[in-house]
């Protein structure tokens, strides 16, 4: 069976661009009047202020990369964040970060060849990556504030795919990913709320997303849940034994995967 490093995303590039703006607006709405000293349990050691600063910084940094059309790994991360002196201005600053990103998107052909650390060496990689950085941390903020979080299903499906396609390339900042190998073991992630089925194949030399498998193929271990919950699972915001998920098969394999796939 073929192991794929790249396949088409569920959302189009324009959808990614619009979704970054929408997710940032939801994030801003959540933190606008919140106490930014609030701890963020899903990001241990961080407060809401840290979460907002990180997300806006990522948006501005990726925007610099897009405008520079980088063709090789950047040597530094120097960027003028224009961060307010007072945390009371952080929510508006995050909204402005999305505007900075939108301007970079408008000036960049998404199909432009660029260096990227993941599978897709096109400008669209950075737009898609920015979306899921923003979406995940919006959910982190809402969870910290006790707010109900929802994730649009198409975005969740696309996010699962984006995570699994790019994870094999993440060892330079997530070194434990290098431990994800084995003697031809498979893990299936199955969406229970519509189409969505991902088979990850571990091999002696690594792992990859198998895009040629029939849905009826058996797997050594399977985790099922809504697309939104599977996305939160992959990002470590849910455990595979959470009540909203079902799992079966090789428990040791699942434990090995989740101990080494932190992103």
Gist of the model:
Residues 156-255 form the MDMPI C-terminal domain. By secondary structure, this protein is of the alpha+beta class. 42% of the residues lie in helices and 11% in strands.
What is the CATH third-level topology name of the largest domain?
A: Four Helix Bundle (Hemerythrin (Met), subunit A)
Tally of individual helices: 7
Q: What is the typical, i.e. mean, pLDDT?
A: 93
Strand order of the largest sheet: 1-4-3-2-5-6
Q: What's the CATH C level of the largest domain? A: Mainly Alpha
Q: What is the succession of H and E elements?
A: EHHHHHEEEEHEH
List keywords for this structure.
six-stranded mixed β-sheet, 7 helices, single chain
Tell me what the structure shows.
The protein is of the alpha+beta class and 263 residues long. It has helices at residues 13-31, 48-68, 90-106, 123-144, 153-166, 227-234, 251-260; strands at residues 3-4, 185-191, 197-203, 206-210, 221-225, 246-249. Strands 1-4-3-2-5-6 form a six-stranded mixed β-sheet. A hairpin with a 5-residue loop joins strand 2 and strand 3 (197-203). Helix 1 (13-31) packs parallel to helix 4 and helix 5 runs parallel beside helix 6. It is globular. The protein starts with a strand and ends with a helix. GO terms for molecular function: isomerase activity; metal ion binding. Residues 19-141 form the Mycothiol-dependent maleylpyruvate isomerase metal-binding domain.
């Amino acid at each position: 069976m073929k192991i794929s490093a790249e396949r088409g995303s569920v959302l189009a590039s324009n959808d990614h661009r619009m979704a970054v703006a929408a997710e940032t607006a939801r994030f801003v709405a959540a933190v606008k009047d919140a106490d930014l000293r609030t701890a963020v349990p899903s990001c241990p050691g961080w407060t809401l202020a840290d979460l907002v600063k990180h997300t806006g910084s990522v948006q501005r940094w990726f925007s610099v990369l897009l405008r520079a059309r980088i063709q090789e790994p950047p040597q530094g991360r120097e960027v003028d964040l224009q961060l307010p002196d007072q945390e009371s201005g952080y929510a508006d600053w995050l909204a402005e970060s999305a505007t900075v990103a939108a301007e970079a998107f408008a000036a960049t052909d998404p199909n432009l060849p660029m260096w990227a650390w993941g599978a897709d060496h096109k400008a669209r990689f950075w737009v898609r990556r920015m979306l899921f950085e923003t979406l995940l941390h919006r959910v982190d903020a809402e969870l910290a504030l006790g707010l109900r979080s929802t994730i649009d299903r198409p975005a969740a499906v696309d996010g699962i795919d984006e995570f699994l396609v790019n994870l094999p390339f993440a060892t330079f900042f997530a070194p434990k990913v290098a431990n994800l190998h084995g003697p031809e073991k498979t893990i299936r992630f199955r969406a229970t709320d519509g189409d969505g089925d991902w088979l990850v194949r571990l091999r002696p030399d690594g792992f990859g997303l198998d895009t040629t498998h029939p849905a009826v193929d058996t797997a050594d271990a399977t985790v099922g849940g809504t697309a939104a919950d599977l996305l939160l699972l992959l990002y470590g915001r849910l455990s595979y034994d959470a009540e909203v998920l079902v799992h079966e098969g090789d428990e040791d394999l699942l434990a090995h995967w989740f101990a080494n796939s932190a992103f």
